[in-house]
Specification:
With about 120 residues, this protein is of the alpha+beta class. It is about 25% helix and about 30% strand. The chain has helices at about 1-15, 15-20, 35-40, 50-55, and strands at about 30, 60, 70-75, 85-90, 95-100. Strands 1, 2, 3, 4 and 5 form a 5-stranded antiparallel β-sheet that branches. Strand 4 and strand 5 (about 95-100) form a beta hairpin. The radius of gyration is 23 Å and the shape is rod-shaped. About 10% of the residues are buried. Keywords: Cell outer membrane, Lipoprotein, Membrane, Palmitate, Signal. Pfam families: BamE (PF04355).
Length: about 120
Amino acid sequence: MRILLALALATAVTSCAVIDPLVYKIDIPQGNYLEQRDVDDLRIGMTREQVRFVLGSPVANNLFRDDEWNYVFRMKPGRGEIVTRALTVHFENDVLASISGDFEPHEDFYTPLES
């Protein structure tokens, strides 16, 4: 009888529902962390090197479309909801033409930088 009680107690103590709130879980960030202020520095007509300077290297290159860079960020917190944010930068003739994704272009985005 004591063995059965000990097994039942061990099973209850090791179940995820009991132990899970007590276990520390780390946040796992992956990809390019971008903020709106980083995207606000982009201007139409920027070269690829200028975009790379502002945003860093893209996390994913589209092998089928060389005129597109993808910046993706995923945060899996130890507790809570997974956060995913993405930005796609579109080039035409090797200069920045548009952006799309989870960030809004700055009001000055369509004002080219002066050479």
